[in-house]
Amino acid sequence: MALEYLGSFWAVIMSIFGGLVLVKWVLKNVNWWVYETKLGEKQYSLPPGDLGWPYIGNMWSFLRAFKSTDPDSFMSSFVSRFGRTGIYKAFMFGNPSIIVTLPETCKRVLTDDDAFKPGWPVSTVELMGKKSFIGISYEEHKRLRRLTAAPVNGHEALSMYIPFIEETVVTSLEKWSQSNEQLEFLTELRRFTFRIIIYIFLSAVDDKVMAALEKEYTALNYGVRAMAINLPGFAYHRALKARRKLVSIFQSIVDVRRKQRTSNVPVKKKDMMDGLLDAEDENGRKLTDEEIIDVLLMYLNAGHESSGHTIMWAVKFLQENPDILQKAKAEQEEIVKKRPPTQKGLTLKEYREMEFLSKVIDETLRVVTFSLTVFREAKTDVNISGYTIPKGWKVLVWFRSVHFDPEIYPNPREFNPSRWDNYVPKAGSFLPFGAGSRLCPGNDLAKLEIGIFLHHFLLNYRLERVNPKSPMLHLPHPRPADNYLARIMKCP
């Protein structure tokens, strides 16, 4: 009787175990069945990889890695399982995807507009706007870029913005140092860069409105890299609410500006908002309020997030490397020393003479890799490195893998601005602002802001960090958990 009972017990256990194995097999192959089998023979030329679990795909392993101390373990797992092919299949952000990680493939995807178009997740487009740069067609993008790039990045524009940027830097550093209190350095920098981009686009807004905008942008950014779960308590839900508030604020600003125009209220200076209101195509069609608001929302977001974070990291790296700091400081002192006594403030010529500081900025951009990836979509079946990228599949250009490739950058984790001495990176190997026709339109302005800030910081200030061992967070962007709590002090 006991043996019969024991036999039945083990039969049940084996049945349960077999059932679990079967369920696991089915779940692991659902995405293969849904997305790969329909490709027919083309499925056999897909890159190596796996599509993970149904709906979730590879997102759990992605989020787990980026919430750990080793975010690059996500891509390392692909390399260890499938080899260093530089191209892998995965299921990311709700879509079957191809991840590319080598300079040659990244360059191809970013520059071949005939084969690839923007492929941002629907959730991201919902947050940034269907009429923003990430949601519009190639033709619309080219038209809007032509309209907005020169006023942001052109030589004349950069020269015009220098006095305001410099004044804002000097005022901010003085204010922070006089408070003699601990402050979240990153938070203050984001406010500082936000004030600059607001000035460029809107001339000026009420301080209360600016504070409200900056708060909502923080919530918006937390939702961009989160899973698209629109339920209370989740980051994406909060981000959607933030977008609605931002749209409401921008709509009121557009309404006021249109009203001023009809009532002939004199305008002190033309800004980007005026340019957007005046813009019209060859058929005389002007931009709608939705188009203006989405472009504003995107530019104001991109125009302060990356600059603020990069300044924080540059200061951090300089503080941790006294020899590099001294070399950068000596260069700035020499620039001031050569300045005519009648000159007040920096010039664009002086900024472009900051050769070593430019290397510091480039090295910071490489090590930090503020945007870990961009999204494209195959417009047709594309063959790359002997593998097929099927039409309609997303393509993720994985910047982190390129910037931390030891074959391109020896000792890639080391902060070493001198690696840029007499070194010109080949196409596709340095991508802090992307590449191709959709290269970040504000890249020169961002580097100008960073350079001017570092110029004044190096000459007159030092920083004392409060929590040097504060843990790192990697989503939505790399930063210390305490937002770099510090004291800013004026040098004697």
UniProtKB/TrEMBL annotation:
Binding site for heme: C440
PROSITE patterns named in the record: CYTOCHROME_P450
InterPro entries according to UniProt: Cyt_P450, Cyt_P450_CS, Cyt_P450_E_grp-I, Cyt_P450_sf
UniProt pathway: Plant hormone biosynthesis; gibberellin biosynthesis; Hormone biosynthesis
GO process terms (BP): brassinosteroid biosynthetic process; brassinosteroid homeostasis; gibberellin biosynthetic process; sterol metabolic process
GO MF terms, alphabetically ordered: ent-kaurenoic acid monooxygenase activity; heme binding; iron ion binding
Membrane topology, record value: Single-pass membrane protein
Residues that span the membrane, as ranges: 6-27
Localization annotation: Membrane
UniProt record similarity statement: Belongs to the cytochrome P450 family.
Full protein name: Ent-kaurenoic acid oxidase
UniProt organism field: Rhamnella rubrinervis
